[in-house]
Write a structure and sequence with these properties.
261 residues; alpha/beta; Rossmann fold; seven-stranded parallel beta sheet
Length: 261
């Protein structure tokens, strides 16, 4: 158990599946009430039921994180539905597997709007709410190993995650005087639906067999296995807790040993 999450209110974007679901469940296990935000209502309802079975409250809200007004509305909903607002997890994001030479303007804009815009609006809206409520808060952003090393065929995805690291550092400096900490978590090869799609796209572009790219990356992990959402959620729970109060501006690798910094 981590310290100080009992009865806190945490908002998690991209909470309907994968890493976001894992984070939401872990924070709920720590006693936090969870505002679940995603585009998939049916899956949100399932996660809400899982969380409520743990004895804490959960609300759902449909929002596109690339839309600034929707992000602000999601935070207002969390405050009203759950009676507070303490932790913002900017988890929502998409991957894009494409050679740099083949990226179109529309593809570029979509991933930038979600992966960078979603984090920017989440930081902005959360910090404004924390200041309005006149209390400290924690903002935690989804980065990636691709935010530390650029990966071939993941060029724009990598660029968006480098941008998340920069936003995390800048926001940490800007909001420190308000008692707001801003950190990031950088997963590696996580066995989720997103990686299934990444593997398929690598197969289409390179001619590799389905599953071959995923297997290759997993074989390069020092600890010898793929990551799970629970692995990521453990770090996020720490960053959301009082145990991390003296940490800010960091984007911490949690990858089992792929990228070393």
């Amino acid at each position: 158990m981590v310290k100080g999450l009992q009865n806190k209110v945490a908002l998690v974007t991209g909470a309907a599946q994968g890493i976001g679901r894992g984070i939401a469940l872990r924070l709920a296990q720590e006693g936090a009430h969870i505002a679940l935000v995603d585009m998939k209502q049916d899956r949100l309802n399932d996660v809400q039921q899982e969380i409520q079975a743990l004895g804490v409250n959960a609300s759902t809200f449909i929002a596109d994180v690339s839309d600034r007004e929707q992000v602000y509305a999601a935070i207002n909903h969390a405050e009203q539905a759950l009676g507070g607002f303490d932790v913002m997890i900017n988890n929502a994001g998409i991957a894009q597997v494409q050679a740099i030479a083949d990226i179109t303007p529309d593809e570029f804009q979509k991933i930038v709007d979600i992966n960078i815009g979603g984090v920017l609006w989440g930081i902005q809206a959360a910090a404004a709410k924390f200041k309005q409520r006149e209390h400290k808060g924690k903002i935690i952003n989804a980065c990636s190993i691709a935010g530390h090393d650029g990966f071939a065929l993941l060029g724009i995805y990598s660029a968006t995650k480098f941008a998340v690291r920069a936003l995390t550092q800048a926001a940490a400096k800007e909001y420190a005087s308000h008692g707001i900490t801003v950190n990031g978590y950088c997963p590696g090869i996580v066995g989720t639906d997103m990686w299934v799609e990444i593997d398929k796209r690598f197969a289409e572009i390179t001619g590799a067999a389905i599953g071959e790219t995923y297997k290759k990356y997993v074989e390069g992990i020092a600890l010898g296995r793929a990551q799970t959402p629970d692995d990521v959620a453990a770090l996020v729970a720490f960053l959301a807790s009082e145990d991390s109060d003296y940490i800010t501006g960091q984007s911490i690798l949690t990858d089992g040993g792929i990228v070393y910094r």
